[in-house]
Amino acid sequence: MNYVVCLKYGDKYSAEYVNKLYSMVKRNLTVPFEFVCFTEDKTGINENIRIEPIPLISGVQGWWYKPMFFNPNLGLNGTILFFDLDVVVFKNIDNLFTYEPNKFCIIRDFNRKFVHNYNKFNSSIFRLTTGMHSQVYTTFITDPANPIRRYHGDQDWIRATVKDGTYSYWPDDWIESYKWEMRGRPKYNNRPRGQRDFAVNGDPVVKDATSVAVFHGDPNPHNCKDQWVIDNWK
Q1: Distance CA 196, CA 188 (A)
Q2: Tens of pLDDT along 146-175?
Q3: HEC assignment per residue over 9-35
Q4: What is the pLDDT of residues 58-67, one digit of tens each?
Q5: What is the DSSP string of 103-168?
Q6: Whether pLDDT at 207 is above 90
């Protein structure tokens, strides 16, 4: 079975983000799949989306629930393609299932824009087979406070526990940072952090190979007034 999964925890992102991700994936994926949202609050989520409850853990919040997707007993048996909610899927993404089959695939972090041969992970989009790199979960769950204290985020923990040679980066052009690569490093308006938009509306440079734009940091898609985002985030 092929699964497209997402994580909604707390109120940082609304059900609208889950529903729009589901809609974008449906339009742009021809590989048979089941869409699954892991959340502690299913209010407002499209009834066609399978809901799985998050096993709530004291002291664990937000992105620190991502290690659970490496749990061999997650309840999903097959290929798991994870998406953060703050993405825009705008072209066919079949290649995210067919590329390097049976290998863990993840984004080379977007600091690649500024640092040559940058080799850290960005976990906005990754793919694995059930049970693969289970140590990411099993080591984490024994003492979550330790990695949470030692690492900035889940992607640094994943990078520390996945051995070299056992993963592949997605080709950089397939998945790009909207604010750093497609629009260029932004100047922001004066709104508070978390609500920022580009100071001036504009159009992204969209490469032929690019199918997903990632909105790490600010702005989030619902804040961005670029017409391209309005036309594609739906």
Answers
A1: 6
A2: 999 999 999 999 999 999 899 999 999 999
A3: CCCCCCHHHHHHHHHHHHHHCCCCCEE
A4: 899 999 999 9
A5: SEEEEEPGGGGTSTT---EEEEEEEEETTTTTHHHHHHHH-THHHHHHSSSHHHHHHHHSPTTSEE
A6: yes
Residues near 35 by beta carbon (within 8 Å), at least 6 away in sequence: 3, 4, 5, 22, 25, 26, 48, 49, 50
CB 33 within 8 A of CB 96: no
Phi/psi at 113 (5° precision) = -60, -30
Residues in Cβ contact with 183 at an 8 Å cutoff, skipping those fewer than 6 apart: 198, 202, 204, 205, 226
pLDDT at 141 over 90: yes
pLDDT-above-90 percentage for the chain: 93
Sign of CA dihedral 79, 61, 177, 117: negative
